[in-house]
């Protein structure tokens, strides 16, 4: 789990599970532009409102969105802090793998150089 200043702990497994579904990723992308009602979020999809509501509940459990009250409407709002944590984790992981791959590349290059030198000595005999 990662934490950021003044934020509750986020279970990244729950977040990644929520984002594994293409419909939920599309909803998150839509909410990145502005808040939206359930009807507005449902419009581009060929599914029932209860199905969209189930997707929204998954996103809420992952703390990716919140649903408020505005009179009769319940606008959904993206919670970008959680996506910031995902980006931090991905950046850290990428840096770690980049360093490992750089070390592997250096090893392979030096090993290749050693093999080429030994091969050249055999041909000189």
Structure description:
This protein has helices spanning 12-19, 22-31, 38-42, 49-61, 80-124; strands spanning 65-67, 76-78. It is mainly alpha-helical and 125 residues long. The protein has a single domain, classed as Arc Repressor Mutant, subunit A, CATH 1.10.10.10. The protein has a two-stranded antiparallel ribbon. Helix 1 (12-19) runs antiparallel to helix 4 and helix 2 crosses helix 4 (49-61). The model is unreliable at 1-7 (pLDDT under 50).
Strand content: under 5%
CATH homologous superfamily designation: Winged helix-like DNA-binding domain superfamily/Winged helix DNA-binding domain
How many helical stretches? 5
* CATH-defined fold name: Arc Repressor Mutant, subunit A
N-to-C SSE string, H for helix and E for strand: HHHHEEH
In total, how many domains does the architecture comprise? Answer: 1
- Tell me the span between the first and last alpha carbons: 61 Å
By CATH, the architecture is named Orthogonal Bundle
- The strands making up the biggest β-sheet line up spatially as 1-2
Describe the main β-sheet briefly.
2 strands, antiparallel
CATH class assignment: Mainly Alpha
| Mean model confidence by pLDDT | 85
- Overall structural class, as computed from helix and strand content, comes to mainly alpha
